[in-house]
Write a structure and sequence with these properties.
The complex is a heterodimer of chains A (about 190) and B (about 130).
Chain A: H1 8-16, H2 20-41, H3 48-69, H4 74-94, H5 104-114, H6 124-136, H7 140-151, H8 156-163, H9 167-190
Helix pairs in contact in A: 1-2, 2-3, 2-4, 3-4, 5-6, 5-9, 7-9, 8-9
Chain B: H1 2-15, H2 27-34, H3 48-70, H4 72-88, H5 102-108, H6 112-118, H7 120-123
Classes of the chains: A mainly alpha (about 190), B mainly alpha (about 130).
């Protein structure tokens, strides 16, 4: 059976009429994009599936506004929606932020990060653990901007398109976020468990 | 700061492979998410407390209006007076005059040295 190319405009117009088949096709197409964004930015307290569901719910509710107002690609619009949803969730979690104790491997990575003569960064799992623990200590917008800039290696222009901030604001926020990250590393070294 | 940024980038580079790959959603999950298309947000009804607050505000407003009825003639006079004052106001308010120029201001200041010679401080005996 030959596979038809995916016609996004046709699919969106059918989704607007609550067509289940079109909605299924759209979800199947967009799920990897949304899941990747949610996995990168979700707070610990939110389940990945719950946030993905929130994003798709918002997508269906706001879809008419996309058709009327925006001329940019659908994926860019959806990515921005997903990023903003994650930022809202991060802000909600920021009020009850607890410091996570580090494993021995992550503690060694912390020493390497803080030490000016530090060379290696240990194994991937320990590095990942430390990165997540440090990012969790930062304010939501700092965490978001560092994840986009450093982990996902996006350009300031891409981050501006995803967040709705200006490119200049993105640069300022990256700079300030790294300053706060440095302070978080110093705090961690002073009081490792507290 | 730049050295810290370099070390941070190395740490992030080391952490990147630990990201789990994204799998495709299962057909059941896709079906459940697609069912959200039928969701239509409905306006939330007022809660009991909100209804109570609205009623209290409406009652307060009614009391204020009822109390004004007693002062109706005075209010009418005050409004008529205000209207008459507005009618006699010029359509364009003239700008205030410019301040005098610096040379005229300096000329108006008395001779400072002669003033100091005549002041009591200048006639006091030195210790």
């Amino acid at each position: 059976m030959p596979r038809h190319p995916f016609d996004l405009d046709d699919c969106l117009s059918r989704v607007a009429a609550a067509d289940q088949d079109a909605a299924r096709a759209l979800v199947a197409r967009c799920h990897p994009l949304v899941a990747r964004i949610v996995r990168s930015h979700r707070p610990k307290s939110h389940g990945e599936d719950d946030l993905v569901q929130d994003v798709f719910l918002k997508m269906f509710v706001m879809l008419p506004r996309y058709e009327v107002r925006d001329g940019r690609p659908f994926e860019a619009w959806l990515s921005r929606l997903a990023v903003r949803t994650c930022l809202d969730a991060l802000r909600a979690e920021a009020r009850r932020r607890d410091r996570v104790p580090l494993s021995r491997g992550a503690q060694a990575c912390l020493e390497t990060l803080a030490d000016e003569r530090g060379a290696g960064s240990g194994d991937a799992a320990a590095a990942r653990e430390l990165v997540e623990a440090l990012l969790a200590e930062l304010p939501p917008s700092d965490r978001l901007v560092l994840t986009l800039r450093d982990l996902e290696q996006r350009s300031p222009a891409e981050i501006a398109a995803l967040t709705g901030w200006s490119v200049a604001l993105v640069r300022v926020r990256v700079f300030r976020a790294r300053m706060r990250l440095r302070a978080a590393v110093r705090r961690r070294r002073k009081t490792p468990d507290g | 700061m730049a050295e810290f940024d370099d070390r941070w980038r190395r740490l992030v580079d080391a952490a990147r492979p630990a990201l789990a790959p994204i799998d495709d959603a299962s057909p059941e999950r896709v079906r459940a998410l697609a069912a959200l298309v039928r969701h239509r947000p409905e306006p939330r009804p007022f809660t009991r407390v909100e209804r109570g607050s609205l009623l209290a505000l409406a009652a307060l407003l009614l009391c204020a209006l009822a109390s004004l009825v007693r002062w109706q003639p005075e209010l009418r006079d005050a409004l008529a007076g205000a209207r008459a004052d507005l009618a006699v106001l010029p359509t364009r308010i003239p700008r205030p005059p410019h301040p005098p120029s610096a040379s005229r201001t300096l000329a108006a200041i008395p001779d400072l040295f002669s003033f100091l010679d005549l002041s009591p401080a200048a006639t006091e005996s030195q210790p």
